[in-house]
Write a structure and sequence with these properties.
By secondary structure, the chain is α+β, with helices and mostly antiparallel strands. 31% of the residues lie in helices and 16% in strands. Strands 3-4-5-7-6 form a five-stranded antiparallel sheet. A two-stranded antiparallel sheet has the order 1-2.
Length: 183
């Protein structure tokens, strides 16, 4: 990773053992521990580098930082970046799990210390998922669907956000498409 991107990413994501803790699927694999062929490794690493650039650009443009406290859409309605109470949480508690399928590969985002957005990248979005997201919109949240975004691999990008904390959102560019056009 180039030094400029590392500095920018460190303002958005936490670090562990001196390394950026990228969301799932965005870290460049360790070549020595990878069982990929040299060609597969280069392809995977190139995708990860483009995806890292896309997610950092997107987060900076929206003034966001990642949060490890996010848990479910109810989190977006909280006035602090803390997980929901266990009995009410739709992810970690005994609450409904109606959001599990569309909350695949989630990243939780804060702005000015408050829950602002959730991005996810499910492999498919069912009609039940769309109805569930509409229910959240009726509760005052906003949502948008788009291309794969930074995750790629045939996923659909979903962004759900709190409109008083984030007035507008654009969907991230498709990292796979960017990689194809950079060759």
């Amino acid at each position: 990773m180039n030094r400029s991107l590392e500095i920018r990413a460190s303002k958005i994501f936490k670090k562990g053992q001196g390394e950026i803790l990228w969301p799932y699927g965005l870290a460049v694999p360790n070549q020595g521990r990878s069982q990929l062929s040299p060609e597969q490794y280069e392809e995977t690493a190139a995708h990860a580098r483009v995806a890292q650039q896309v997610i950092v650009d997107w987060a900076e443009d929206h003034g966001l930082r990642s949060s490890e406290s996010g848990c479910c859409p109810k989190w977006l309605m909280r006035n602090a970046s803390r997980q929901c109470e266990s009995d009410a949480c739709g992810k970690y508690g005994s609450g409904s799990r109606d959001d599990d399928s569309w909350l695949d590969h989630p990243v939780y985002w804060i702005k000015d210390g408050l829950p602002a957005a959730i991005t996810s990248a499910p492999y498919s979005v069912s009609e039940d998922d769309r109805r569930r997201i509409e229910q959240w919109k009726e509760s005052g949240l906003m949502a948008a669907f788009g291309e794969p975004g930074w995750y790629g691999f045939g996923t659909t990008q979903i962004v759900m956000w709190h409109p008083k904390r984030l007035t507008s959102v654009y969907l991230a560019e498709d990292a796979d498409r960017l990689l194809r056009h950079s060759k």
